[in-house]
Design goal:
This protein is α+β, with helices and mostly antiparallel strands. The protein contains 46 helices and 29 strands.
Amino acid sequence: MATVELYTKGASVWVSDPDAVWVSAQLLQDYKTGDQSVLLQLSDGRELQYPVAPPAGLPPLGNPELLEGENDLTALSFLHEPAVLHNLSVRFLHYSSIYTYCGIVLVAINPYEQLPIYGEEVIQAYSGQDMADMEPHIFSVAEEAYRTMTREEKNQSIIISGESGAGKTVSAKFTMRYFAVVGGASEQTSVEEKVLASSPIMESIGNAKTTRNDNSSRFGKYIEIGFGRKGDIIGANMRTYLLEKSRVVFQANEERNYHVFYQLCASRHLPEMRQLQLDAPEQFRYTSQGGQTEIPGTDDVMDLERTRNAFTILGVLPDQQTELFRVLAAVLHLGNVHIQASGRGGERSYIDADDSSLAVFSKLLGVEAGQMAHWLCHRRLPVGGELLVKPMTGQQACEARDALAKHMYGQMFSWTVLRLNAALRAHREKPRSYIGVLDIYGFETFDKNSFEQFCINYANEKLQQQFNRHVFQLEQEEYVREELLWNRIEFSDNQPCIALIEGHLGLLDLLDEECRMPKGSDESWARKLYDQHQNHQPSPHFSKPRMSNSAFIILHFADSVQYECDGFLDKNRDTVFEEPINILRASQVFSHISSDLVADLFQQAPAGAAVELSGGKPSLANGSVRSGKRGHREHKLTVGFQFRQSLQLLMDTLNSTTPHYVRCIKPNDVKEPFVFDPRRAVQQLRACGVLETIRISAAGYPSRWTYEEFFSRYRVLLRGLQPRPQPQPRPQPQLQEACKQALPCLIPDPDQYCFGKTKVFFRAGQVALLERLRAERLRGAGMVIQSRVRGWLARRRYTRIRQAALTVQRYTRGALGRRQALTLRYTRAALVLQKTFRMLAVRQLYQMIRQATLTIQAFTRGTLARREYRQVLCERAAVRLQAWVRGCRARRAYGRVRAAVVLMQCCARRRAARREMLRRKAEARSVERIRQLNKGMEVKLMSLQLRADQEARDSSALRETLHAEREAHRAEAAGLRGALARLEAQRQEQPAPSPAPSPQQEEERRRLRERTALELLTLTQEVQALKTEREELVRQKEDLQRQVVEQQMSQEECVRQAVSQAGVCLRGEVEEERRKYQGLLREFTRLEQRYDNLRDMSLPSERSKGHRRTDSCQSLSMEPLSPVSAPFPGSPTFSPASAPFPGCPTFSPASPEESRRVSVTSQDWSSWSKDTPMDTLMENMGVAKDTAVKMRADDLGHAYDAVRVANKLLETQLRSQSEQQGVELKPPGREASADGQELLEAREQECVRLKRELQELRHTVTLRTLLTHTAPPAAVQPPDGSCAAQARGGAVSGLLECRKRDEAKLMKILITELRADSALSLPPGLAAGVVFLCVRQADHAGDAARTHTLCGAAIAAMKAALKKHSKDADMTALWLKNACLLSDLLTQHCPRQDGQAGSIDAVPLTSDLSDLRRSLGDLCIQAYQQLLSITESRLKPIIVPAMLETDTIPGLSASGVKPGGSRKRAGSDPRAAAGEEVDAPSMAGTLRVLAGLHSALSRQDLPPSLLGQAFHQLTHLLCAATLNSLLLRKDMCCWNRGLQIRYNVSLLEEWLRSRGLQAGGAVATLEPLIQAAQLLQVGKKTEADAQALVQACTALSSQQIVKILTLYTPHSELEERVTLNFIRSVQALLRGRSEGQPPHLLLDVKKVFPVTFPFLPPPALHADRLGIPESLKISFLRRV
């Protein structure tokens, strides 16, 4: 009950509403005790006078705004229905969070939309995490159950309930998927696949469309998933409850039958389905009653294919599947059998002999159609000692037909469950513990409720009772653990309602009794109910409706439900007559097949017996068969009795386990995504027990704080404690004493709180009271601070204003004086300006008149002259126009022809270019493309140079032509000027004209002047045209030059782009190929362990065949190549003639570059013929085929065959060596000398070596090793004599010689048995140097076999050393260094194609060691991956605590704890108890792990690029794990946590930069985490903030940004929440960026970056400069 003092003005309360159930309101005045009403203001602004009857009538108080969206309902200050409903609505609508905790219950709201929160990365993020630390999720509940099971070794159960359409089936499916991923991580088996394959089968035969759900489960199921000692899934078992068989023969409107019927009808066109003679579902009575035969968005054909695949996975043979489908099709045809009434009053019935449906039914089941038609319309009745055949009416015959159909389907359903359990049964070992997943129907109430709803609600009553008792028990355990003095919590126990149903003379007892009566009826049963429970022993949970005598009402825990008695007896009996069943037992079509399907379906089971399921748990039969004999009547089991027994068995199972609860809620009835109907939600909350959980919690102490959290939050209310100068934690006793002293002053009533050992407990509402007191204390302190600050601000403002006033006055007086002086100056200047302006105005007027007069005269004269001149021009222009038009036409025709020719050329060239482009694209995929491209580039450049030269020559020719034209024009102009000068001279030389020329002379002169002027004009125009043409030519020249330059630049740019793109594509392909190759190598390492297990399993069988193995240490002289190091460039080249024995293939190796680039994924296994080389090899070797290996494409099967062949080969060699040894080692005579003894020792050493090789090969050889390298090392052909002679002739010194008998000893001392302390004190790469000098000496001596043997033994020894030190980073780094160094040495001295060594100063090796170099490359990758695996195993447990949870910045976590209770599940926290000191993970520990790896790598002088790659991988792990945890934890999304994350990342960045690791991409990988930390710190209010946020967070996806904004929680009440409008603005800005990107929320923690090992030519090795210490004791090596 809330405290009355909290009802003050401004307090938030809840008021009931008929539409929204509850609406928020605010108090407008304080409430005082005795007031009859309170004045409220609703959320829409309306005022309401709310009547109250104190104190019970007070409206429920609202929680603080800080608690809105809380992920645990029990953490709310006020626990009541409106608070729960509002919190669920806020999380569902505003935050898109469908999961919410309610104590131990997970509330799941169906979003009706696919959400990206169920991927494997989400499973990995929740795996191993505590339930209280993560956001609510179905995976969190599954992880809690899995961890509790593995830790306490106690069985668990997950109870998923809810009404139809709430998402129960999907939740159960995701739960099983989580167990399959987590429980199958250690070993990939088929059990997890079978467990997941059971879902589509059960959905097909047990789910149907209803009005509320398109995929509603019409049965309850309990799946027990068994786990072994290592926590892996080893088996499963399923139990089902109350299949709705009535749906087979009847469906309500807008509903469907079971999915499998529609899947069969949709697949009727398939060849294997044609024999079923099916039709559209509308043509069958059993599938068309609902009116809807299709579900939008569902493909029935694909669903059937998925179901058949699941059957195949579970071991159901295709013949059995076909027979199963025949039975289902027969059920459909049975429903179409037409039964007609006959006789008087319809007392008889019959079926036409030519009824097609009956004929198909009989054909499918192989029965006599006549007999089936007869017994469908007749029945046997025992009369005295005889059996009487009695005809049935039409109605009875139809009921008998439907009963037969339901019985057939029920038996088929039970048989399917039996087969599933048989396939899921644990075969290897007995399950150590199990987790049960219960997917059962929720509380149901309809307009008309019948027997099915009665059983469902009865089951929910039992589950609710178990739930209430479990919640009460957890509360009690918590109080006992904290040693509290508490009173018993009263909770509503529904035992009276359960006793009404299942007790003595209860509803089920009376129903069974009425079923045993010969003439029992529903009305008689109803009367008995009224007499017993209303009249004789009245029950408060039973009542009779007023207007009905055939119904009754039961008051359940959730609601009152009225049940109609019609059909209760028939459904409870669920009988079918024996005669049709006997006909089916006598079916002939099944008698010739090997399947026992019909025998399992229609066998005569003993009455009352239970069918035993896997795991020893019985499942009761579906219904009973009515026999004609009286003797079996008393043994019949009714459906109610069976259901009660199975429910009791289920309750016993649940009570023996630790339960976990998931309550599924259906948000609306229209199936719209993210639409919340509060009325439907609150109805389901009341029905599923969530509110009861809250009521039980509220009755005790719902708010719980640790003393440290309480002190951190309410330190301002505690007096007497001095603040500490340093942020050191206070001791627990001091905090406890401070809380005990302060709380009585804060809360006077001692019953409202209680002190425990580690926590302080509060009743409901007290946390809100403390929050109010804290807010008042902070408000008072704030007012004092504000008064001081305001006074100081006012004084400072007054001083500034006074100083400013004085300054303003001084400046004002000066400004007024200057203004007066300027006025006088302006007055004098105005007079001068006026005088001057008037003079200028008069002068301008005169000038204007004069200029106008002159202009008029000039224009008049000019007009007359131009008119005369224009006439002359028109005549000449007409002539020129004609010439230009004709030329233009000619040029236009030429242009069209030229354009057509150019177009044809372009088309032809484009076609050729396209062909060339396609050809080049095809060629671009090859490795040699770069070389050809470079060659093509040279040709292009040469052609471009030639074109440039040609353009230059053309330009020079044009330049010369232009120069010649200029000279000609210049000469012509000079001539014209000369002629003009002569004419002028002649005119001047002419005598002076007579004073009175004649008119003829005047006319001649005029004509001469006109002609001269015309010629001068013509010449001027020609000169102007020549100038224009010259300029045009110059411009064309410049354009041509510019075009040539641009074309050259564009061609060069195209060439560069093409080369760049080809290089990028090639690098991407090589990188992807390298990543795949290294992934397959990692997969091989994992599969190798599986192979070892299978090998160990095969040892007893091989020993029984007489093969004996020497238990000696591993041999190191055999060369075990990695199975992924020998690629298949195309298909392997086999040469039987050169094999060491008939049928042994010989591999022709490819070049090292090709071998490095070929991936294992390029193998074409399908191209192998039926008689593979392995089969031929096994046949030639005399190895028998193993019938257990059935799948030819399985690597494990081939590896097993390969090992057997290799064992046979080595056994043959060993036997031949032993025989030769026996011949040579006869008892020596007197002539035996020391040489004979030495030969005997050598033979013994050889025998031991061969035995060790046999032992080693069983550990390492696989399929590809045998197929590519079957020949032993001795079969390697020696090099030609010339090369050997050349090698021997070279002056090579400083080598080490190892005798053949000392090879194993050398590998043993130098590698396998080298101790860690001794190895780390040696110079880096010493072992590789010694091995290489020995290998080089053997190669120099011309012994190629020993060269291969030594190198192969070294590789095998390094692999053994890596396995031996699989947890030691220093030793792994040491062998990584040795493997890299040996690989570089072999690469440096390997011969190239031209016969020279890889290095200029190195003498080449004569032996071909390319295959061994590939094996060394694989060994380097294996050592690198093992080193990273060691570091990752140390980092993973501390990443999230160190990066997220540690508080290394002083003062960040001082007073920001969010109000609420500590509601972690009791007994689920495996952390250390109070008082135990545990070293908490921190950044210092993380950096120590990284420093350990860095020192291990640096100690071995590994290249910096390799260090950069290693730390790039590790920083990605750190970033991905931290960011994934941040995205799933609401408590971490706050401002101070973002600052802490940024600080931790800065420490990591500083550490990386201090060691020079930033260049390898390690720092750049942290960018998403840095941006996430910035996102938590930046402002999140305005539109500008949204734009800045989107621009800054480029490394985060849209989903990640929105998720962080959604989860953001204010650190204190002084902060503001992120508004929904701001989130929508960010989503709108991100919408354009997210297009084309795959939706992903979490980063891939398992992402692996491929590693490349740089080739660094080592310096020349010399035995004298190696510095071999004496402690190694390898003095038996001889220096050469």
